[in-house]
Design goal:
CATH class of chain B: Alpha Beta
Number of helices of chain A: 5
Radius of gyration of chain B: 13 Å
Order of helices and strands of chain A: EHHEEEEEEHHH
Number of strands of chain B: 4
Radius of gyration of chain A: 14 Å
Strand content of chain B: 15-25%
Shape of chain A: globular
Distance between the termini of chain A: 10 Å
Helix content of chain B: 40-55%
Largest interface: A-B, 29 and 22 residues
CATH class of chain A: Alpha Beta
Order of helices and strands of chain B: EHEHEEHH
Strand content of chain A: 25-35%
Largest sheet of chain A: 5 strands, mixed
Oligomer: heterodimer
Largest sheet of chain B: 4 strands, parallel
CATH superfamily of chain A: Mannitol-specific EII, Chain A
Structural class of chain A: alpha/beta
Shape of chain B: globular
CATH topology of chain B: Rossmann fold
CATH architecture of chain B: 3-Layer(aba) Sandwich
Strand order of the largest sheet of chain B: 2-1-3-4
CATH superfamily of chain B: Response regulator
Number of domains of chain A: 1
Helix content of chain A: 25-40%
Structural class of chain B: alpha/beta
């Protein structure tokens, strides 16, 4: 589910759209998502933002409809500098996520255990801080992967 | 032991899939622990009015903006705090009050 190829450290981006496109294109490259995925991720984020004020710091969980997805996958992006996202449920609130957890979900019923673990991860301030401070893709993978099972 | 009281919940998020599934799952656990028998359905904001017209829900938990009139009087609470985990207690307290007021 979590793939090393979908983990990006030190992402140097100007704005949320650039961050989303960069991540989403990695999903397409890896075959986890269809070519329509990047535009769909960006459009959905504009309509229904996904940033959350987690206990550790702001994060976001960009995702879109299953029709743009080939197989379930999760990617992690550590932003070099936080960029502006809108808060889920309250688009009038601006947040500054430092981590993005991008999700490719095909069937939420099927992947409910995973969604449950991801929610636990969002609430795990220690893990989020470790991810942000990590020096390598392998390190992030070894922090997060055990938490998804 | 008395019969467990049944409650029906509707969770709402932008796509009606990912976040509402997380919420439905969490709320089911949360209220089963409180002794309720829980049914949770998921919808997106544009489906809300249809769901409400079709069935009676005890509570709507929403993670995306919704139209007040779509609720047709159904009690509703914002649910972002459940995803971050920072608003669990507040949500639980308010929801239990709503259920009690409805005799559940």
């Amino acid at each position: 589910m979590l793939r090393k190829e979908l983990i990006k450290l030190d992402a140097d981006v100007e704005n949320s759209e650039e961050a989303l496109r960069m991540m989403a294109e990695m999903f397409v490259q890896e075959g986890a998502a269809k070519p329509s995925y990047p535009d769909a991720i960006i459009a959905r984020e504009a309509q229904y933002p996904t940033a959350l004020p987690a206990e550790a710091f702001d994060i976001a969980i960009p995702h879109t409809f299953a029709e743009h997805v080939n197989e379930p996958a999760m990617g992690i992006c550590v932003l070099k500098n936080p960029v502006e996202f809108k808060q889920m449920g309250s688009p009038e609130i601006t947040l500054h996520p430092q981590l993005l957890f991008m999700l490719a979900i095909t069937d939420p019923k099927d992947q409910i255990t995973l969604l449950r673990k991801i929610m636990k991860l969002i609430q795990n301030a220690d893990a989020l801080k470790q991810i942000k401070e990590a020096d390598s893709v392998d390190e992030i993978y070894s922090i997060v992967n055990p938490l998804l099972f | 032991m008395g019969k467990r009281k049944a409650i029906k919940l509707l969770t709402v998020c932008g796509s009606g899939i990912v976040t509402s599934s997380m919420l439905a799952n969490k709320l089911t656990d949360m209220f089963e622990e409180e002794g309720y028998e829980v049914t949770a359905m998921e919808a997106n904001p544009s489906e809300l009015a249809t769901y409400i017209a079709r069935e009676k829900y005890d509570l709507v938990a929403y993670a995306s903006p919704i139209n007040e009139e779509d609720l047709a009087g159904t009690p509703a609470l914002p649910a972002i705090g459940l995803i971050t985990g920072l608003g669990d207690e507040e949500f639980l307290e308010q929801a239990l009050e709503i259920f009690k007021a409805a005799g559940k």
